Amino acid sequence: QVQVVESGGGLVQPGGSLRLSCTVSGSTFRRSNIRWFRQAPGKEHEFVARINWTGDITAYTDSVKGRFTISRDDAKNMVYLDLTSLKPEDTAVYYCDLNGLWGQGTRVTVSS
Fold this sequence. Notes:
Strands 2, 4, 5, 6, 9, 10 and 11 form a seven-stranded mixed β-sheet that branches. A four-stranded antiparallel β-sheet has the order 1-3-8-7, with no helix packed on it. Helices cover 0% and strands 52% of the residues. The mean pLDDT is 95. The protein is globular. The chain is mostly beta strands.
């Protein structure tokens, strides 16, 4: 059974950094594009970033370009989202999406 588990969230001050991890169990990982979404309090889910299955094509929503970086390690069945220069508006629960399968999310709170 394929499972997706996000981790790495926490409380960070504005301007700080975090690394989010998405661990995928199951054999579908290596041929799958992966996306990160987030949901801020009281808002809809928002696309954040995606990476293709070969890892050489990435895309980001405009509000995080230049600050967030998505990457993958197929040997570990993991996808990472490096968050830098964090802003209070980045506060949200972040989810990893594998072909429509999501985990429970990991909460990021940016506050002084």
